[in-house]
């Protein structure tokens, strides 16, 4: 078992023939990911990277049985792409696109609410189950198979934490980059919950950042489970001044509880082992598991 994607996932790429879609689809295929085709309107019937191109997601699903989509569609059209994938019966939609207007994401999230679909992103690095499927833009060679789940708002910190965990001899079960926008499909709590319920995940790394309440809600959930799996947490943006956006569109301190200090305090109170530096994530997890 794994979370969200595995060797049996059938993946299509929306925005397949564009420069970003082409580059990352090629990387995914080289990794061994089961990419079964892609979608670019008005280019159906062609082959691209040796895979069939379809005009619509519905055509792709009908022909290939695809159940996962990764979206590299430009921001102005990305919300439509999300809704099209949901309509076609895709169960996991991973949206890499950055810069989707907030009002578009509000509409897309509401549209898919009552459908049987998990949306990851937007503005995220994707999801990887090492050795099985890389559905995203992460450097696959960093991730090695293991039993530590990883949830992160930050793409680069996802890679940093994965590298440390691998070097500590632990490895990754599934890494989920949830995205740093104000409106995302799967907040921290829901992503942590997936890993908490995964029998192949023994412990979890949770990386958050300033802004919003995702980490506090996740911490309260972890406490409610009786801390059944060890969790190491880190919050980025500890030196960020209030009122200034730092990096991600969602990373802005809007109130006292949005600060890194406040989030770290809540996490610690809920039984999460909080580190002050991302450099300590791997070693701290290794020590925690030994104990």
TrEMBL record:
Q: Which GO terms describe its biological process?
A: tricarboxylic acid cycle
Q: Which GO terms describe its cellular component?
A: succinate-CoA ligase complex (ADP-forming)
Q: Keyword Ligase: yes or no? A: yes
Q: Where does substrate bind?
A: 159
This protein's pathway reads: Carbohydrate metabolism; tricarboxylic acid cycle; succinate from succinyl-CoA (ligase route): step 1/1
Q: Where does CoA bind?
A: 17-20, 43, 96-98
- Domain (CoA-binding) spans 4-100
Q: What class of enzyme is it?
A: ligase
Which of UniProt's keywords are assigned here? Ligase, Nucleotide-binding, Tricarboxylic acid cycle
Q: Which GO terms describe its molecular function?
A: nucleotide binding; succinate-CoA ligase (ADP-forming) activity; succinate-CoA ligase (GDP-forming) activity
Which Pfam families does the record cross-reference, listed alphabetically?
Answer: CoA_binding, Ligase_CoA
Catalytic reaction(s) noted: succinate + ATP + CoA = succinyl-CoA + ADP + phosphate; GTP + succinate + CoA = succinyl-CoA + GDP + phosphate
The UniProt record lists the EC number as 6.2.1.5
Query: Which residues does the Swiss-Prot or TrEMBL record annotate as the active site?
Result: 248
What the protein does? Succinyl-CoA synthetase functions in the citric acid cycle (TCA), coupling the hydrolysis of succinyl-CoA to the synthesis of either ATP or GTP and thus represents the only step of substrate-level phosphorylation in the TCA. The alpha subunit of the enzyme binds the substrates coenzyme A and phosphate, while succinate binding and nucleotide specificity is provided by the beta subunit.
Subunit info here reads:
Heterotetramer of two alpha and two beta subunits.
Cite the NCBIfam families for this sequence: PRK05678.1, sucCoAalpha
Q: What family name appears in the similarity comment?
A: Belongs to the succinate/malate CoA ligase alpha subunit family.
| Name of the protein | Succinate--CoA ligase [ADP-forming] subunit alpha
User: Quick one: which gene encodes this?
Assistant: sucD
């Amino acid at each position: 078992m794994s979370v969200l994607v595995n060797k049996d996932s059938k993946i299509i790429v929306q925005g397949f023939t564009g420069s970003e879609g082409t580059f990352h689809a090629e990387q995914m295929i080289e990794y061994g990911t089961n990419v079964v085709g892609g979608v670019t309107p008005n280019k159906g019937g062609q082959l691209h990277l040796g895979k069939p191109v379809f005009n619509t997601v519905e055509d792709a699903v009908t022909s290939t049985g695809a159940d996962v989509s990764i979206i590299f569609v430009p921001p102005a059209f990305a919300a439509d792409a999300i809704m099209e994938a949901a309509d076609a019966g895709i169960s996991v939609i991973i949206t890499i696109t950055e810069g989707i207007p907030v009002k578009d994401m509000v509409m897309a999230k509401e549209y898919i609410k009552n459908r049987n679909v998990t949306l990851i992103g937007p503005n995220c690095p994707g999801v990887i189950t090492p050795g099985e499927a890389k559905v995203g833009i992460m450097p696959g060679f960093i991730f090695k198979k293991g039993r530590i789940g990883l949830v992160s708002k930050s793409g680069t910190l996802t890679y940093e934490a994965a590298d440390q965990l691998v070097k500590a001899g632990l490895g990754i079960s599934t890494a989920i980059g949830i995205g740093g926008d104000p409106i995302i499909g799967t907040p921290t709590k829901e992503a942590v919950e997936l890993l908490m319920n995964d029998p192949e995940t023994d412990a979890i790394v949770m990386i958050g950042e300033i802004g919003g309440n995702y980490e506090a809600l996740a911490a309260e959930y972890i406490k409610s489970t009786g801390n059944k799996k060890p969790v190491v947490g880190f919050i980025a943006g500890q030196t960020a001044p209030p009122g200034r956006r730092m990096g991600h569109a969602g990373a802005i301190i809007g109130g006292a509880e949005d600060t890194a200090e406040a989030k770290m305090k809540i996490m610690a109170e809920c039984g999460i082992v909080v580190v002050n530096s991302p450099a300590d994530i791997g070693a701290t997890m290794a020590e925690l598991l030994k104990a």
